[in-house]
UniProtKB/TrEMBL annotation:
PROSITE patterns: HIS_KIN, PAS. GO terms for molecular function: ATP binding; phosphorelay response regulator activity; phosphorelay sensor kinase activity; protein kinase activator activity. The gene is barA. It holds the Pfam family PAS_9. InterPro entries: BphY/WalK/GraS-like, HATPase_C_sf, HATPase_dom, His_kinase_dom, HisK_dim/P_dom, HisK_dim/P_sf, PAS, PAS-like_dom_sf. Residues 247-459 form the Histidine kinase domain. It is a multi-pass membrane protein. It is found in: Membrane. It comes from Cytophaga hutchinsonii (strain ATCC 33406 / DSM 1761 / CIP 103989 / NBRC 15051 / NCIMB 9469 / D465). It comes from the Bacteria. This is histidine kinase. GO terms for cellular component: membrane.
Length: 461
């Protein structure tokens, strides 16, 4: 009998769902002897335990035959997947041919699982993954395009990728067309954000145009903008450090050399008045060195210390600074005026705020003109729930327009007559930046200067 020699499993079931015949292949597939299968309910061999006839659905009734996929259970309780070709007869019985497709089903499920995981990885990746055609049009792009460049996926599909690459970098991506299957790395490809901002990317691209499955250029773009910014900041920091070391060594040596020269001269003099003059000059050199060291200390403290949030009373602060400065040379000739309005609590870093105001007031005293009829320094402070506005105005020597963008640079001196270390306003600007504030200058040479400082109130932060 041909059915007995068939390689596929074949069985008949009567209208009650009981097996009336199972060929040797069916016996082997299910692991039963022929006598064990005879009169066994077909539902006992189905994992879902549902009525097989309802599983066949109405298609069998209408077409009298259908092919379905079903999970079966063997005698040893192991399972397998079978593709069933089923034919239903008028008396309610049916015949089925079963082919074991377990290996194919498992492979298909593994493939679907891999595809699902790959889709999750692509959709949640921080990098942009792109597939380009041979003319560089975008065939596929991952959702990271929205986060990195601000575009929706639908708005870029079909667009030429050059539209999103900075003009000078477009030639780089064309190199990938030269060889199939070779990975090209571009260390810094500049992409254009929707808002016009340049985004620095590290790019890996592989040409798979000859691959019938992919038929495209696969490009992976990793945002390195923060790294580039950090590298640039490091370069600037190293430059500033080199300049700092040079200037510090020079400015520390100058007063020491001056004192050594004065000591040598004093040793050669016999008159008391001349020696006293040299001693006074040495005292001034020591005083200048002390100021310079103090500025270095402030610079170091501002660079490394975290922002400390404490309550600040500006009336107390200004009184303290005024008392410290009133003994400076010529301070008694300058009228000091204050107008402080503080109706709400103000929180910030007290040491940095004191450094800012103290340095600005010290400069106002130091660079005043005494040929004016009424030399003055005016301090006006208004405090709100969001910020403190500090305005320091004087009718001193003023600052020329060409120096307005330079006075906050490290060691900058507007002229040879400038006193101090050249660090004061640099420290002021650095401290304001730490507090996320702003400083502006309005000045008329030989007439007046006004510094306006705004510092955020950290009360609610």
């Amino acid at each position: 009998m041909l059915l007995n020699e068939a390689s596929d499993a074949i069985y008949w079931v009567n209208h009650k769902g009981l097996i009336t015949y199972a060929n040797p292949s069916a016996q082997i597939l299910f692991g039963y002897e022929e006598v064990e299968l005879k009169d066994k309910s077909i539902s006992d061999l189905i994992v879902s335990k549902t009525d097989l006839f309802s599983t066949f659905s109405s298609n069998i009734i209408e077409e009298k035959g259908v092919v379905i996929q079903q999970e079966f259970v063997r005698k040893d309780n192991s399972t397998f997947y079978g593709e069933m070709s089923v034919r239903l007869f008028d008396d309610g019985s049916h015949q089925a041919i079963i082919r074991d497709i377990t290996k194919g089903v498992i492979e298909q499920r593994l493939l679907l699982d891999r595809e699902r995981k790959f889709k999750i990885l692509v959709e949640n990746a921080f990098d942009i993954i792109i597939v380009l055609s041979s003319d560089f049009k975008i065939k596929f792009i991952s959702p990271a395009i929205k986060k990195m460049l601000g575009y929706e996926i639908d708005s870029v599909l079909g667009e030429n990728s050059n539209k999103f690459i900075e003009f000078r970098d477009r030639v780089m991506i064309k190199e990938v067309l030269k060889n199939h299957g070779i990975t090209y790395a571009i260390n810094d490809l500049k992409l254009i954000h929707k808002n016009g901002q340049i985004i620095h990317c590290e790019v890996n691209a592989v040409n798979f145009l000859n691959d019938p499955l992919i038929n495209g250029i696969i490009v992976n773009c990793h945002d390195i903008s923060k790294r580039i910014q950090t590298e640039n900041e490091l370069i600037n920091t190293n430059y500033e450090l080199d300049s700092f070391v040079y200037k510090v060594s020079h400015d520390l040596k100058a007063p020491l050399r001056s004192m050594l020269g004065l000591i040598n001269l004093s040793q050669k003099e016999n008159t008391e008045d001349t020696v006293k003059l040299y001693l006074d000059m040495m005292v001034r050199s020591i005083h200048n060195m002390d100021i310079f060291i103090k500025d270095l200390t402030q610079f170091s403290r501002n660079s490394r210390m975290e922002v400390i949030k404490e309550s600040i009373d500006f009336k107390e602060l200004i009184t303290k600074i005024e008392n410290n400065l009133k003994y400076d040379d010529n301070a008694r000739f300058i009228s000091f005026e204050r107008n402080i309005s503080q109706q709400s609590l103000f929180y910030s870093d007290p040491n940095r705020v004191e450094t800012i105001v103290s340095n600005l007031l010290s400069n106002a005293y130091k660079y005043h003109r005494f040929d004016s009829n009424n030399p003055y320094i005016n301090v006006k402070i208004e405090v709100s729930e969001t910020a403190a506005c500090i305005v320091i105005k004087d009718n001193g020597s003023g600052i020329a327009d060409e120096y307005h963008n330079k006075i906050f640079q490290m060691f900058f001196r507007a002229s040879e007559k400038s006193q101090g270390s050249g660090l004061g306003l640099y420290i002021v600007k650095s401290a304001i930046d730490k507090l996320e504030g702003t400083i502006t200058l309005h000045s008329i040479p030989d007439k007046e200067s006004t510094f306006t400082v705004e510092i955020p109130n950290l009360l609610t932060r």
